[in-house]
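Dear colleague,

Following up on Tuesday's group meeting, I ran the structure prediction for the two-component complex that the binding team flagged. I've pasted the input sequences exactly as they went in, so you can double-check that nothing got truncated or mislabelled along the way. The structure tokens for the whole assembly follow below. Feel free to forward this to whoever is handling the docking comparison.

Inputs:
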Amino acid sequence: GIQVEQSPPDLILQEGANSTLRCNFSDSVNNLQWFHQNPWGQLINLFYIPSGTKQNGRLSATTVATERYSLLYISSSQTTDSGVYFCALGTSYGKLTFGQGTILTVHP
Amino acid sequence: SQTIHQWPATLVQPVGSPLSLECTVEGTSNPNLYWYRQAAGRGLQLLFYSVGIGQISSEVPQNLSASRPQDRQFILSSKKLLLSDSGFYLCAWDPGQGRWGYTFGSGTRLTVV
């Protein structure tokens, strides 16, 4: 099956710092998504990005499908950015295979 | 707008007891529906998915079953819970038919004691 590897597993930042989260995957992708899980467990869809670059406020994502990786950039981090960030790859019928996530902690 | 409801939020059940978790979606029709489980640790594992009423596909063999009695209702069940069934259960939907839009419910934290 599809293998999804995320790095780093844990990341600790001071408020205002920038960060880059990486997702490597084993197969060609037609559906790659990034999610944020807040400390209460709610998963929010950040980006649908099978290729190219997208930006939404302080967050942006880039997927290089030919090299099988995706990057999530967080600029000027805030304490509300804390939580777990997941990369997930979609197969048929929208079934997603999730990576193990990156736990981000932003200190004030 | 579309919304997804999942309940209960938390549940403590004894080993051997039955389970029923319910998920409903509003504001859309014929969605794809999914049940995921997140064990302590991190990753989410897909348990079941459904592309229509009565159509259920299982991803992993286990002590659980799923049903879709109505277009926007998805139920996760067990006849007898095991300790290993403990976890965080999440329902999700997307519009299907090649359209993007993956949305999760708020989840149910199940503890089997």
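The first strand of chain B starts at residue 3 and ends at 7.

Cheers,
M.
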